[in-house]
Inverse folding.
């Protein structure tokens, strides 16, 4: 059986004020084209279809279009992630099922199953939407469930893998050994977040969502498909893919990672302000790339962010990091010494310590004048 595995679409995501719907539509178009070319037996979306529980209209429309188009190619199995509202995704599941789209929003004490078959016999897909320990306690009636490991174990106890054939788990969780990015929402509330991979031993393949970098665990039998687009600058060097998984007659797994094209590049630019301005003239991709800037000038000129945004229209993050201080700056005066200093001496020390190469005579004169005005105002009180 050939499984096209994707996850973490996060439709409706916004990054640095930029609506990512166009980039997500670009990725969905690529996934549909890959599915049309590969003709898998089933398409799996392992959670976080939306970026928030109450998605916007464009996000809902894009998911509707994606499921319709993918469902015309092969059966689709999709589950809720921690960003989704499971109850909302469960709406109309019976109607969708008749059209070959199997949605599992809320977790169950006995995970929902989808039975498919190929030339070698049946393949059972067990669906495990994101579940908190509190969810598992309610569903199973077990008060001892206090962690994500215990919650997953309790719910998987209801998944019957004793019958013949091959078994695939579709889940949304943080498996031990997984590699995270800072764009993933913390799921550790209610106990330890990670789940040991030993819990997935009964399954021939485990298709996971939640972590945004595509990677495999346990010799490839457990895999994160990753997100189809970059959702934070911690992902700027990640290669986004979908996984085409082949499950043979004995349940052995082989995987082909198929790259997804990106609408935007993503880069971090670091340097002095004047250097960044000069470099823009020779930057062929500055109009289309998502940019984070880290300026290292001791003093950043007023309007630096706005000036750089005229050169890099998709500047999403702007940071100022003054140059590192040398060893001579390590000996800082004690607080009581500063308290005994005159106001002018305090200002001089501050300028010399904070801006050693940039505190020119004009700046020092302005600082002295401001201090005089402040002292005069204080005396008049």
């Amino acid at each position: 059986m050939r499984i096209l595995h994707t996850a973490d679409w996060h439709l409706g995501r916004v990054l640095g004020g930029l609506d990512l719907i166009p980039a997500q539509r670009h990725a969905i178009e690529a996934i549909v084209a890959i599915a049309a070319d590969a003709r898998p037996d089933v398409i799996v979306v392992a959670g976080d279809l939306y970026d928030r529980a109450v998605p916007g209209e464009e996000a809902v429309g894009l998911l509707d279009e994606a499921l319709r188009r993918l469902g015309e190619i092969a059966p689709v199995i999709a589950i809720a992630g921690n960003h989704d509202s499971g109850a909302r995704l469960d709406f109309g599941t019976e109607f969708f099922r008749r059209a070959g789209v199997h949605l599992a929003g809320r977790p169950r004490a006995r995970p929902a199953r989808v039975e498919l078959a190929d030339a070698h016999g049946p393949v059972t897909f067990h669906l495990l939407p994101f579940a908190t320990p509190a969810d598992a306690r309610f569903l199973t009636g077990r008060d001892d469930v206090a962690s994500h490991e215990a919650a997953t174990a309790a719910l998987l106890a209801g998944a019957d893998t004793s019958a013949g054939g091959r078994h695939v788990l579709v889940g949304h969780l943080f498996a031990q050994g997984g590699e995270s990015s800072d764009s993933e929402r913390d799921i550790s509330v209610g106990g330890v977040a990670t789940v040991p991979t030993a819990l997935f031993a009964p399954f021939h393949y485990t298709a996971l969502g939640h972590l945004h970098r595509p990677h495999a665990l346990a010799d490839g039998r457990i895999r994160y498909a990753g997100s189809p687009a970059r959702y934070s600058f911690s992902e700027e060097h990640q290669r986004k893919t979908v996984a085409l998984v082949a499950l043979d007659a004995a349940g052995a797994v082989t995987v082909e990672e198929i790259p997804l094209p990106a609408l935007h590049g993503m880069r971090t630019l670091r340097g002095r302000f004047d250097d960044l301005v000069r470099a823009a003239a020779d930057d062929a991709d500055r109009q289309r790339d998502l940019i984070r800037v880290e300026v290292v000038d001791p003093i950043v000129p007023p309007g630096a962010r706005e000036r750089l945004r005229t050169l890099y229209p998709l500047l999403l993050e702007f940071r100022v990091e003054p140059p590192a201080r040398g060893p001579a700056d390590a000996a800082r005066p004690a607080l009581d010494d500063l308290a005994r200093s005159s106001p002018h001496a305090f200002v001089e020390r501050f300028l010399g310590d904070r801006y050693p190469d940039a505190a020119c005579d004009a700046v020092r004169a302005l600082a002295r004048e401001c201090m005089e005005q402040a002292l005069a105002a204080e005396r008049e009180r």
